[in-house]
Amino acid sequence: MSSRIPLEVARVLRLGRPPEIWFKPALSVVAAVAPPNLTLVALDRLDLAMYTMAGSLCALYAHNRPYAARARTLAWVLLGMLGGLAAALLAASLTGNAVVLVTVGAVLAAVQKVLCDATRIGPPGNVILTFVSSAALFVPQTLAEIPGHLALGAAAGAWAWLVGMAPGLLRPHGPERRATAAALRAAAAYAESAGEHDHAGSGGKHDQAGNGRAHAATALSAARHALLGAGRATAARQALGRLLDRAEIALAAPADADPDLLRAWARDLRGTRPVPLVDDLTLLRGEPAPRDPLWARVRPLGRLAVRTALGCAFAGYASLALGVGRPYWALVTAASLYQASLTLTWGRGVQRVVGNLLGVLLFAALVPLAHTGGLALVLCCAALNFGAEALIGRNYWLGSVCVTPMALLITEFAGFQDPGRLIGERVLDTIVGALIGLLAALAVPDRARARVVRSGRGTPRTLAGAEHREVPHPDQRTQSDTTEGVRP
Protein backbone atom coordinates (compact mmCIF):
# COMPACT_ATOMS: atom_id res chain seq x y z
CA MET A 1 0.00 0.00 0.00
CA SER A 2 2.88 2.36 0.81
CA SER A 3 4.22 2.14 -2.76
CA ARG A 4 0.82 2.22 -4.45
CA ILE A 5 0.12 5.94 -3.97
CA PRO A 6 3.46 7.11 -5.47
CA LEU A 7 2.88 4.77 -8.41
CA GLU A 8 -0.60 6.17 -8.95
CA VAL A 9 0.72 9.74 -8.76
CA ALA A 10 3.42 8.89 -11.28
CA ARG A 11 0.77 7.40 -13.57
CA VAL A 12 -1.47 10.48 -13.58
CA LEU A 13 1.55 12.75 -14.15
CA ARG A 14 2.96 10.69 -17.02
CA LEU A 15 3.36 12.63 -20.25
CA GLY A 16 1.59 11.43 -23.37
CA ARG A 17 2.27 12.09 -27.02
CA PRO A 18 1.31 15.56 -28.28
CA PRO A 19 -1.88 15.73 -30.38
CA GLU A 20 -1.35 15.74 -34.12
CA ILE A 21 -2.53 19.34 -34.55
CA TRP A 22 -1.28 20.77 -31.24
CA PHE A 23 0.04 23.91 -32.95
CA LYS A 24 -3.28 24.88 -34.52
CA PRO A 25 -5.21 25.52 -31.28
CA ALA A 26 -2.11 27.22 -29.87
CA LEU A 27 -1.84 29.60 -32.81
CA SER A 28 -5.59 30.14 -32.95
CA VAL A 29 -5.91 31.29 -29.35
CA VAL A 30 -3.02 33.72 -29.80
CA ALA A 31 -4.60 35.08 -32.99
CA ALA A 32 -7.93 35.48 -31.17
CA VAL A 33 -6.58 37.02 -27.95
CA ALA A 34 -3.75 39.29 -29.12
CA PRO A 35 -5.51 41.79 -31.46
CA PRO A 36 -8.26 42.84 -29.00
CA ASN A 37 -5.78 43.14 -26.13
CA LEU A 38 -3.24 45.07 -28.20
CA THR A 39 -6.04 47.42 -29.27
CA LEU A 40 -6.89 48.04 -25.62
CA VAL A 41 -3.22 48.72 -24.86
CA ALA A 42 -3.15 51.31 -27.63
CA LEU A 43 -6.30 52.92 -26.19
CA ASP A 44 -4.89 52.74 -22.63
CA ARG A 45 -7.95 50.73 -21.54
CA LEU A 46 -6.41 47.41 -20.61
CA ASP A 47 -8.79 47.34 -17.65
CA LEU A 48 -11.47 46.21 -20.15
CA ALA A 49 -9.46 43.18 -21.26
CA MET A 50 -11.39 40.80 -19.03
CA TYR A 51 -14.48 41.34 -21.19
CA THR A 52 -12.70 40.87 -24.50
CA MET A 53 -10.95 37.78 -23.12
CA ALA A 54 -14.37 36.25 -22.50
CA GLY A 55 -15.08 36.29 -26.22
CA SER A 56 -11.52 35.54 -27.33
CA LEU A 57 -11.28 32.33 -25.29
CA CYS A 58 -14.08 30.81 -27.38
CA ALA A 59 -11.30 30.12 -29.91
CA LEU A 60 -10.21 27.22 -27.69
CA TYR A 61 -13.16 25.07 -28.77
CA ALA A 62 -14.09 22.75 -31.64
CA HIS A 63 -10.72 22.40 -33.40
CA ASN A 64 -11.35 18.79 -34.40
CA ARG A 65 -14.83 19.37 -35.77
CA PRO A 66 -15.60 19.72 -39.48
CA TYR A 67 -16.16 23.33 -40.42
CA ALA A 68 -19.93 23.11 -40.83
CA ALA A 69 -20.24 21.67 -37.32
CA ARG A 70 -17.51 23.98 -36.00
CA ALA A 71 -19.43 27.07 -37.10
CA ARG A 72 -22.47 25.98 -35.09
CA THR A 73 -20.45 24.88 -32.07
CA LEU A 74 -18.47 28.11 -31.82
CA ALA A 75 -21.67 30.14 -32.09
CA TRP A 76 -23.28 28.17 -29.23
CA VAL A 77 -20.13 28.45 -27.12
CA LEU A 78 -20.11 32.22 -27.62
CA LEU A 79 -23.78 32.46 -26.65
CA GLY A 80 -23.12 30.37 -23.55
CA MET A 81 -20.11 32.47 -22.65
CA LEU A 82 -22.04 35.72 -22.99
CA GLY A 83 -24.99 34.28 -21.04
CA GLY A 84 -22.78 33.33 -18.10
CA LEU A 85 -20.96 36.66 -18.27
CA ALA A 86 -24.26 38.57 -18.30
CA ALA A 87 -25.57 36.67 -15.26
CA ALA A 88 -22.34 37.31 -13.37
CA LEU A 89 -22.20 41.01 -14.21
CA LEU A 90 -25.85 41.43 -13.22
CA ALA A 91 -25.19 39.77 -9.85
CA ALA A 92 -22.08 41.91 -9.31
CA SER A 93 -24.07 45.06 -10.01
CA LEU A 94 -26.84 44.14 -7.58
CA THR A 95 -24.80 43.04 -4.55
CA GLY A 96 -21.33 43.14 -3.10
CA ASN A 97 -21.98 40.36 -0.59
CA ALA A 98 -19.19 37.83 -1.21
CA VAL A 99 -21.19 34.86 0.15
CA VAL A 100 -24.05 35.61 -2.24
CA LEU A 101 -21.65 36.01 -5.14
CA VAL A 102 -19.94 32.69 -4.39
CA THR A 103 -23.36 31.02 -4.27
CA VAL A 104 -24.28 32.50 -7.65
CA GLY A 105 -20.94 31.33 -9.03
CA ALA A 106 -21.51 27.79 -7.76
CA VAL A 107 -24.95 27.63 -9.38
CA LEU A 108 -23.56 28.94 -12.66
CA ALA A 109 -20.73 26.38 -12.48
CA ALA A 110 -23.23 23.54 -12.02
CA VAL A 111 -25.36 24.71 -14.95
CA GLN A 112 -22.30 25.09 -17.19
CA LYS A 113 -20.96 21.67 -16.25
CA VAL A 114 -24.26 19.90 -16.93
CA LEU A 115 -24.89 21.66 -20.23
CA CYS A 116 -21.36 21.04 -21.50
CA ASP A 117 -21.55 17.35 -20.57
CA ALA A 118 -25.06 16.93 -22.00
CA THR A 119 -24.17 18.59 -25.31
CA ARG A 120 -20.68 16.99 -25.42
CA ILE A 121 -19.24 20.32 -26.38
CA GLY A 122 -15.73 18.89 -26.03
CA PRO A 123 -12.59 20.20 -24.36
CA PRO A 124 -11.97 22.52 -22.62
CA GLY A 125 -15.59 22.04 -21.62
CA ASN A 126 -17.15 24.00 -18.81
CA VAL A 127 -13.99 25.23 -17.10
CA ILE A 128 -13.36 28.23 -19.36
CA LEU A 129 -17.00 29.31 -19.01
CA THR A 130 -16.80 28.95 -15.23
CA PHE A 131 -13.50 30.83 -15.04
CA VAL A 132 -14.92 33.83 -16.91
CA SER A 133 -18.27 34.00 -15.09
CA SER A 134 -16.71 33.44 -11.64
CA ALA A 135 -14.06 36.13 -12.16
CA ALA A 136 -16.69 38.58 -13.42
CA LEU A 137 -18.67 38.18 -10.19
CA PHE A 138 -15.94 39.98 -8.25
CA VAL A 139 -15.40 42.90 -10.63
CA PRO A 140 -17.14 46.13 -9.51
CA GLN A 141 -20.02 46.74 -11.88
CA THR A 142 -23.03 48.99 -12.47
CA LEU A 143 -26.16 48.17 -14.43
CA ALA A 144 -25.39 50.91 -16.96
CA GLU A 145 -21.98 49.36 -17.78
CA ILE A 146 -23.23 45.87 -18.52
CA PRO A 147 -24.39 46.38 -22.16
CA GLY A 148 -21.06 47.91 -23.15
CA HIS A 149 -19.05 45.17 -21.48
CA LEU A 150 -21.15 42.47 -23.14
CA ALA A 151 -20.68 44.21 -26.48
CA LEU A 152 -16.90 43.98 -26.02
CA GLY A 153 -17.20 40.26 -25.32
CA ALA A 154 -19.45 39.74 -28.35
CA ALA A 155 -17.09 41.64 -30.66
CA ALA A 156 -14.06 39.66 -29.48
CA GLY A 157 -16.12 36.45 -29.76
CA ALA A 158 -17.05 37.26 -33.36
CA TRP A 159 -13.33 37.69 -34.10
CA ALA A 160 -12.61 34.35 -32.39
CA TRP A 161 -15.30 32.72 -34.57
CA LEU A 162 -13.57 34.04 -37.69
CA VAL A 163 -10.19 32.80 -36.43
CA GLY A 164 -11.64 29.34 -35.79
CA MET A 165 -13.20 29.16 -39.25
CA ALA A 166 -10.29 30.70 -41.20
CA PRO A 167 -8.31 27.46 -41.81
CA GLY A 168 -11.31 26.16 -43.78
CA LEU A 169 -10.41 28.58 -46.58
CA LEU A 170 -7.21 26.62 -47.22
CA ARG A 171 -8.25 23.09 -46.21
CA PRO A 172 -12.05 22.82 -46.27
CA HIS A 173 -11.86 19.06 -45.63
CA GLY A 174 -9.01 19.18 -43.09
CA PRO A 175 -10.80 17.86 -39.96
CA GLU A 176 -12.43 14.89 -41.69
CA ARG A 177 -9.17 14.08 -43.51
CA ARG A 178 -7.33 13.97 -40.17
CA ALA A 179 -10.03 11.80 -38.61
CA THR A 180 -9.90 9.39 -41.56
CA ALA A 181 -6.10 9.22 -41.40
CA ALA A 182 -6.28 8.45 -37.67
CA ALA A 183 -8.75 5.61 -38.34
CA LEU A 184 -6.50 4.16 -41.05
CA ARG A 185 -3.44 4.26 -38.79
CA ALA A 186 -5.37 2.64 -35.92
CA ALA A 187 -6.68 -0.08 -38.23
CA ALA A 188 -3.15 -0.72 -39.48
CA ALA A 189 -1.81 -0.99 -35.93
CA TYR A 190 -4.59 -3.42 -35.00
CA ALA A 191 -4.00 -5.58 -38.08
CA GLU A 192 -0.31 -5.86 -37.16
CA SER A 193 -0.97 -6.66 -33.51
CA ALA A 194 -3.61 -9.24 -34.45
CA GLY A 195 -1.14 -10.88 -36.80
CA GLU A 196 1.52 -11.02 -34.07
CA HIS A 197 -1.01 -12.55 -31.69
CA ASP A 198 -1.83 -15.27 -34.23
CA HIS A 199 1.85 -16.14 -34.47
CA ALA A 200 2.75 -15.79 -30.77
CA GLY A 201 -0.52 -16.77 -29.09
CA SER A 202 0.51 -15.17 -25.78
CA GLY A 203 -1.89 -13.60 -23.31
CA GLY A 204 -0.04 -10.29 -23.40
CA LYS A 205 -0.30 -10.11 -27.16
CA HIS A 206 -4.00 -10.98 -26.92
CA ASP A 207 -4.60 -8.07 -24.54
CA GLN A 208 -2.62 -5.76 -26.79
CA ALA A 209 -4.65 -6.80 -29.83
CA GLY A 210 -7.90 -6.32 -27.91
CA ASN A 211 -6.90 -2.83 -26.83
CA GLY A 212 -5.81 -2.04 -30.37
CA ARG A 213 -9.15 -3.17 -31.73
CA ALA A 214 -11.07 -1.02 -29.25
CA HIS A 215 -8.90 1.97 -30.17
CA ALA A 216 -9.39 1.36 -33.89
CA ALA A 217 -13.16 0.99 -33.47
CA THR A 218 -13.26 4.28 -31.59
CA ALA A 219 -11.18 6.04 -34.25
CA LEU A 220 -13.38 4.61 -37.00
CA SER A 221 -16.56 5.72 -35.29
CA ALA A 222 -15.06 9.20 -34.71
CA ALA A 223 -14.21 9.48 -38.40
CA ARG A 224 -17.77 8.44 -39.36
CA HIS A 225 -19.10 11.14 -37.03
CA ALA A 226 -16.77 13.67 -38.64
CA LEU A 227 -18.04 12.86 -42.13
CA LEU A 228 -21.65 13.01 -40.96
CA GLY A 229 -21.09 16.48 -39.50
CA ALA A 230 -19.09 17.80 -42.44
CA GLY A 231 -22.01 18.88 -44.60
CA ARG A 232 -22.88 17.86 -48.14
CA ALA A 233 -21.25 14.77 -49.63
CA THR A 234 -18.56 16.20 -51.91
CA ALA A 235 -16.38 13.97 -54.08
CA ALA A 236 -13.55 14.26 -51.54
CA ARG A 237 -15.81 13.23 -48.65
CA GLN A 238 -17.16 10.29 -50.63
CA ALA A 239 -13.57 9.18 -51.24
CA LEU A 240 -12.86 9.49 -47.51
CA GLY A 241 -15.89 7.31 -46.82
CA ARG A 242 -14.52 4.61 -49.11
CA LEU A 243 -11.20 4.71 -47.23
CA LEU A 244 -13.10 4.21 -43.99
CA ASP A 245 -14.75 1.18 -45.56
CA ARG A 246 -11.26 -0.26 -46.02
CA ALA A 247 -10.40 0.47 -42.40
CA GLU A 248 -13.61 -1.25 -41.34
CA ILE A 249 -12.72 -4.35 -43.36
CA ALA A 250 -9.30 -4.38 -41.68
CA LEU A 251 -11.04 -4.54 -38.30
CA ALA A 252 -13.31 -7.36 -39.44
CA ALA A 253 -10.57 -9.39 -41.16
CA PRO A 254 -7.16 -8.22 -39.92
CA ALA A 255 -5.36 -11.23 -41.39
CA ASP A 256 -6.28 -10.08 -44.90
CA ALA A 257 -5.38 -6.42 -44.33
CA ASP A 258 -2.26 -4.67 -45.61
CA PRO A 259 -1.02 -2.38 -42.80
CA ASP A 260 1.55 -0.71 -45.05
CA LEU A 261 -1.12 0.23 -47.58
CA LEU A 262 -3.40 1.59 -44.86
CA ARG A 263 -0.57 3.75 -43.54
CA ALA A 264 0.31 4.93 -47.05
CA TRP A 265 -3.28 6.11 -47.53
CA ALA A 266 -3.09 7.89 -44.18
CA ARG A 267 0.11 9.69 -45.25
CA ASP A 268 -1.53 10.75 -48.51
CA LEU A 269 -4.24 12.54 -46.52
CA ARG A 270 -1.74 15.05 -45.15
CA GLY A 271 -1.73 18.57 -46.49
CA THR A 272 -3.74 19.27 -49.62
CA ARG A 273 -2.86 16.18 -51.64
CA PRO A 274 -5.70 14.50 -53.55
CA VAL A 275 -7.63 11.95 -51.52
CA PRO A 276 -6.58 8.42 -52.55
CA LEU A 277 -9.23 6.80 -54.73
CA VAL A 278 -10.30 3.22 -53.94
CA ASP A 279 -13.18 1.11 -55.16
CA ASP A 280 -16.61 1.66 -53.67
CA LEU A 281 -17.41 -1.40 -51.58
CA THR A 282 -20.96 -0.18 -50.82
CA LEU A 283 -20.83 -1.40 -47.24
CA LEU A 284 -24.07 -1.27 -45.31
CA ARG A 285 -23.31 1.22 -42.58
CA GLY A 286 -26.82 1.79 -41.28
CA GLU A 287 -28.43 5.04 -40.29
CA PRO A 288 -26.99 6.96 -37.35
CA ALA A 289 -29.10 6.71 -34.23
CA PRO A 290 -31.04 9.93 -33.55
CA ARG A 291 -29.77 11.92 -30.58
CA ASP A 292 -31.99 12.34 -27.57
CA PRO A 293 -33.40 15.83 -26.96
CA LEU A 294 -31.36 18.06 -24.69
CA TRP A 295 -33.68 17.72 -21.69
CA ALA A 296 -33.35 13.94 -21.85
CA ARG A 297 -29.56 14.21 -21.76
CA VAL A 298 -29.62 16.75 -18.91
CA ARG A 299 -31.96 14.76 -16.65
CA PRO A 300 -29.49 11.94 -15.73
CA LEU A 301 -26.88 14.54 -14.70
CA GLY A 302 -28.71 15.72 -11.58
CA ARG A 303 -26.21 14.22 -9.15
CA LEU A 304 -23.36 15.76 -11.12
CA ALA A 305 -25.05 19.16 -10.84
CA VAL A 306 -25.45 18.77 -7.06
CA ARG A 307 -21.83 17.65 -6.67
CA THR A 308 -20.53 20.57 -8.72
CA ALA A 309 -22.69 23.16 -6.95
CA LEU A 310 -21.79 21.92 -3.47
CA GLY A 311 -18.09 21.52 -4.20
CA CYS A 312 -17.78 24.98 -5.77
CA ALA A 313 -19.88 26.70 -3.11
CA PHE A 314 -18.05 25.24 -0.12
CA ALA A 315 -14.66 25.79 -1.76
CA GLY A 316 -15.56 29.44 -2.21
CA TYR A 317 -16.91 29.76 1.34
CA ALA A 318 -13.74 28.19 2.77
CA SER A 319 -11.61 30.59 0.74
CA LEU A 320 -13.60 33.53 2.11
CA ALA A 321 -13.21 32.22 5.68
CA LEU A 322 -9.45 32.11 5.16
CA GLY A 323 -9.44 35.73 4.05
CA VAL A 324 -8.60 35.19 0.37
CA GLY A 325 -9.60 38.14 -1.78
CA ARG A 326 -10.39 36.05 -4.87
CA PRO A 327 -12.52 33.07 -3.80
CA TYR A 328 -13.38 32.33 -7.42
CA TRP A 329 -10.00 30.63 -7.82
CA ALA A 330 -11.02 27.98 -5.30
CA LEU A 331 -14.43 27.74 -6.98
CA VAL A 332 -12.89 27.17 -10.43
CA THR A 333 -10.46 24.60 -9.01
CA ALA A 334 -13.35 22.57 -7.62
CA ALA A 335 -15.28 22.89 -10.91
CA SER A 336 -12.31 21.61 -12.90
CA LEU A 337 -12.00 18.35 -10.96
CA TYR A 338 -15.24 16.54 -11.73
CA GLN A 339 -14.70 13.71 -14.18
CA ALA A 340 -16.68 10.60 -15.07
CA SER A 341 -15.41 8.57 -12.11
CA LEU A 342 -13.92 9.14 -8.68
CA THR A 343 -10.56 7.75 -9.80
CA LEU A 344 -10.37 10.20 -12.68
CA THR A 345 -11.50 13.03 -10.40
CA TRP A 346 -8.70 12.23 -7.94
CA GLY A 347 -6.19 12.12 -10.79
CA ARG A 348 -7.33 15.50 -12.06
CA GLY A 349 -6.92 16.90 -8.55
CA VAL A 350 -3.31 15.72 -8.43
CA GLN A 351 -2.62 17.17 -11.86
CA ARG A 352 -4.21 20.48 -10.92
CA VAL A 353 -2.25 20.90 -7.69
CA VAL A 354 1.11 19.97 -9.24
CA GLY A 355 0.58 22.20 -12.27
CA ASN A 356 -0.55 25.19 -10.21
CA LEU A 357 2.32 24.95 -7.74
CA LEU A 358 4.85 24.90 -10.57
CA GLY A 359 2.89 27.62 -12.35
CA VAL A 360 3.20 30.11 -9.50
CA LEU A 361 6.98 29.67 -9.66
CA LEU A 362 6.88 30.55 -13.36
CA PHE A 363 4.71 33.56 -12.51
CA ALA A 364 7.28 34.74 -9.99
CA ALA A 365 9.96 34.54 -12.68
CA LEU A 366 7.85 36.46 -15.23
CA VAL A 367 6.63 39.26 -12.95
CA PRO A 368 9.66 41.58 -13.42
CA LEU A 369 9.18 41.45 -17.20
CA ALA A 370 5.37 41.69 -17.14
CA HIS A 371 5.45 44.71 -14.83
CA THR A 372 7.47 46.81 -17.27
CA GLY A 373 4.27 47.95 -18.99
CA GLY A 374 0.92 47.04 -20.50
CA LEU A 375 2.42 45.82 -23.78
CA ALA A 376 4.79 43.46 -21.96
CA LEU A 377 1.89 42.17 -19.88
CA VAL A 378 -0.19 41.39 -22.99
CA LEU A 379 2.73 39.73 -24.77
CA CYS A 380 3.50 37.56 -21.74
CA CYS A 381 -0.15 36.45 -21.62
CA ALA A 382 -0.09 35.65 -25.34
CA ALA A 383 3.05 33.54 -24.94
CA LEU A 384 1.52 31.69 -22.00
CA ASN A 385 -1.65 31.10 -24.01
CA PHE A 386 0.43 29.48 -26.73
CA GLY A 387 2.42 27.42 -24.24
CA ALA A 388 -0.69 26.20 -22.44
CA GLU A 389 -2.37 24.97 -25.62
CA ALA A 390 0.87 23.50 -26.95
CA LEU A 391 1.58 21.53 -23.75
CA ILE A 392 -1.77 20.58 -22.26
CA GLY A 393 -2.28 17.79 -24.77
CA ARG A 394 0.71 16.00 -23.21
CA ASN A 395 -0.84 16.12 -19.74
CA TYR A 396 -3.17 18.48 -17.89
CA TRP A 397 -0.58 19.38 -15.25
CA LEU A 398 1.98 20.43 -17.87
CA GLY A 399 -0.46 22.84 -19.49
CA SER A 400 -1.45 24.16 -16.07
CA VAL A 401 2.14 25.30 -15.58
CA CYS A 402 1.40 27.96 -18.23
CA VAL A 403 -2.30 28.43 -17.43
CA THR A 404 -1.64 29.43 -13.80
CA PRO A 405 0.68 32.40 -14.47
CA MET A 406 -1.58 33.47 -17.33
CA ALA A 407 -4.60 33.59 -15.00
CA LEU A 408 -2.56 35.53 -12.44
CA LEU A 409 -1.40 38.05 -15.04
CA ILE A 410 -4.98 38.53 -16.28
CA THR A 411 -5.89 39.82 -12.81
CA GLU A 412 -3.30 42.57 -13.33
CA PHE A 413 -4.89 44.02 -16.46
CA ALA A 414 -6.68 46.54 -14.25
CA GLY A 415 -3.46 47.41 -12.39
CA PHE A 416 -0.25 45.80 -11.11
CA GLN A 417 -0.52 44.05 -7.74
CA ASP A 418 1.73 42.59 -5.06
CA PRO A 419 3.05 39.34 -6.60
CA GLY A 420 3.71 37.75 -3.20
CA ARG A 421 0.08 38.13 -2.18
CA LEU A 422 -1.16 36.80 -5.52
CA ILE A 423 1.06 33.75 -5.24
CA GLY A 424 0.00 33.02 -1.66
CA GLU A 425 -3.70 33.35 -2.47
CA ARG A 426 -3.42 31.17 -5.57
CA VAL A 427 -1.62 28.38 -3.72
CA LEU A 428 -4.11 28.48 -0.87
CA ASP A 429 -7.12 28.51 -3.17
CA THR A 430 -5.72 25.63 -5.21
CA ILE A 431 -5.31 23.42 -2.15
CA VAL A 432 -8.66 24.42 -0.65
CA GLY A 433 -10.50 23.96 -3.94
CA ALA A 434 -8.93 20.57 -4.62
CA LEU A 435 -9.58 19.20 -1.13
CA ILE A 436 -13.18 20.38 -0.88
CA GLY A 437 -13.88 19.39 -4.47
CA LEU A 438 -12.72 15.85 -3.75
CA LEU A 439 -14.78 15.73 -0.56
CA ALA A 440 -17.87 16.75 -2.56
CA ALA A 441 -17.15 13.96 -5.05
CA LEU A 442 -17.02 11.47 -2.17
CA ALA A 443 -20.15 12.88 -0.54
CA VAL A 444 -22.22 12.83 -3.75
CA PRO A 445 -21.13 9.73 -5.71
CA ASP A 446 -22.51 9.12 -9.18
CA ARG A 447 -22.42 5.34 -9.39
CA ALA A 448 -24.69 5.12 -12.42
CA ARG A 449 -22.37 7.34 -14.44
CA ALA A 450 -19.33 5.39 -13.30
CA ARG A 451 -20.98 2.15 -14.46
CA VAL A 452 -21.51 3.66 -17.89
CA VAL A 453 -17.84 4.64 -18.06
CA ARG A 454 -16.70 1.14 -17.02
CA SER A 455 -18.99 -0.57 -19.49
CA GLY A 456 -17.82 1.75 -22.27
CA ARG A 457 -14.23 0.60 -21.81
CA GLY A 458 -15.00 -2.94 -22.93
CA THR A 459 -13.95 -4.11 -26.36
CA PRO A 460 -16.97 -4.78 -28.60
CA ARG A 461 -17.32 -8.40 -29.63
CA THR A 462 -18.22 -7.61 -33.24
CA LEU A 463 -17.66 -4.79 -35.67
CA ALA A 464 -21.38 -4.14 -35.71
CA GLY A 465 -21.24 -3.79 -31.94
CA ALA A 466 -18.54 -1.17 -32.28
CA GLU A 467 -20.58 0.73 -34.83
CA HIS A 468 -23.76 0.76 -32.76
CA ARG A 469 -22.10 1.46 -29.45
CA GLU A 470 -22.04 5.20 -28.78
CA VAL A 471 -18.44 6.24 -29.19
CA PRO A 472 -17.77 9.96 -28.88
CA HIS A 473 -16.37 12.13 -31.61
CA PRO A 474 -12.95 13.55 -30.66
CA ASP A 475 -14.43 16.96 -29.89
CA GLN A 476 -17.46 15.45 -28.14
CA ARG A 477 -15.41 13.73 -25.45
CA THR A 478 -15.60 14.85 -21.87
CA GLN A 479 -12.59 16.10 -19.99
CA SER A 480 -12.05 12.66 -18.53
CA ASP A 481 -11.23 11.40 -22.02
CA THR A 482 -8.75 14.07 -23.06
CA THR A 483 -6.53 16.76 -21.68
CA GLU A 484 -6.74 19.04 -24.65
CA GLY A 485 -7.65 22.67 -24.08
CA VAL A 486 -6.72 25.49 -21.73
CA ARG A 487 -8.24 25.38 -18.25
CA PRO A 488 -7.50 28.28 -15.89
TrEMBL record:
<feature type="transmembrane region" description="Helical">
    <location>
        <begin position="427"/>
        <end position="444"/>
    </location>
</feature>
<feature type="region of interest" description="Disordered">
    <location>
        <begin position="453"/>
        <end position="488"/>
    </location>
</feature>
<keyword id="KW-1133">Transmembrane helix</keyword>
<keyword id="KW-0812">Transmembrane</keyword>
<feature type="transmembrane region" description="Helical">
    <location>
        <begin position="150"/>
        <end position="170"/>
    </location>
</feature>
<feature type="compositionally biased region" description="Basic and acidic residues">
    <location>
        <begin position="195"/>
        <end position="208"/>
    </location>
</feature>
<feature type="transmembrane region" description="Helical">
    <location>
        <begin position="358"/>
        <end position="385"/>
    </location>
</feature>
<feature type="domain" description="Integral membrane bound transporter">
    <location>
        <begin position="315"/>
        <end position="440"/>
    </location>
</feature>
<feature type="transmembrane region" description="Helical">
    <location>
        <begin position="397"/>
        <end position="415"/>
    </location>
</feature>
<feature type="compositionally biased region" description="Basic and acidic residues">
    <location>
        <begin position="466"/>
        <end position="488"/>
    </location>
</feature>
<keyword id="KW-0472">Membrane</keyword>
<feature type="transmembrane region" description="Helical">
    <location>
        <begin position="304"/>
        <end position="322"/>
    </location>
</feature>
<dbReference type="InterPro" id="IPR049453">
    <property type="entry name" value="Memb_transporter_dom"/>
</dbReference>
<feature type="region of interest" description="Disordered">
    <location>
        <begin position="195"/>
        <end position="215"/>
    </location>
</feature>
<dbReference type="Pfam" id="PF13515">
    <property type="entry name" value="FUSC_2"/>
</dbReference>
<protein>
    <submittedName>
        <fullName>FUSC family protein</fullName>
    </submittedName>
</protein>
<feature type="transmembrane region" description="Helical">
    <location>
        <begin position="127"/>
        <end position="144"/>
    </location>
</feature>
<feature type="transmembrane region" description="Helical">
    <location>
        <begin position="21"/>
        <end position="40"/>
    </location>
</feature>
